[in-house]
């Protein structure tokens, strides 16, 4: 499947070396942060495997994978890229919430802990001093669990949007439940300062004001849009650029795109410059090595 399993491993040798070095630095900081008690669960990583020279694969072994020049135009349209699909998903998840209290599925979280790692990374690397005042928009917020994770890391000005009304209702329910006894935000200091706004909005047709946010966060939304059309991807990224303040960040987490593919897409907009990447533990599949997900930050220029 183009952009899927093949896309995970389509990286050059230099990209692997860069990601490996970043991973070592970030994981050391993350371990210190975890020991402080602010992170709920440590992520186990085989460090020996990561730093071994043998973990840097020969780029030639990827010759049958996606090429650097392939873009979203190569993806086949899928129902996952349609409003009807997500309406069905969140109608079901909202029904489950009312029946059992289940907050809903968190995509590709079980092994990668993306929400926790990204929240820590954005605070630790980009908003060390100003995280409480940073205005963050979570696009395609779904069940709202990313907003809760950001709040756990001290971010206090949060907005979530989704074009599915049932997702917005589910997210609001989850935010409310998170503040109640037994919830992940219950008893947190300065919780009264937390401002969360969640509403229906489609960034392909958004009327949100220009430069409204310091950070736009996207986990999987670009993936879904890419299964719709290339024109939608371009329109979406340009809207993200319009809504982000100059010098602000667009943070993308993808399970469809390799890091180089994301860089290519963002370079085409001429509005973003890569500001960094968050590295994940690697896996080996079919003799190839790579990570299941990619997280990158782009500075608005």
TrEMBL record:
Q: Which InterPro entries match?
A: Efm4/METTL10, Methyltranfer_dom, SAM-dependent_MTases_sf
Residues in Methyltransferase domain copies: 133-272
SUPFAM superfamilies in the record, alphabetically?
Answer: S-adenosyl-L-methionine-dependent methyltransferases
Q: Name one GO cellular component term.
A: cytoplasm
Alphabetically list the UniProt keywords. Cytoplasm, Methyltransferase, S-adenosyl-L-methionine, Transferase
A Pfam family: Methyltransf_31
Kindly list any coiled-coil regions of this protein: none
GO BP, sorted A to Z: methylation
Q: Name one GO molecular function term.
A: protein-lysine N-methyltransferase activity
Q: What is this protein called?
A: Methyltransferase domain-containing protein
Which classification does the entry list for the species? Eukaryota, Cryptophyceae, Pyrenomonadales, Geminigeraceae, Guillardia
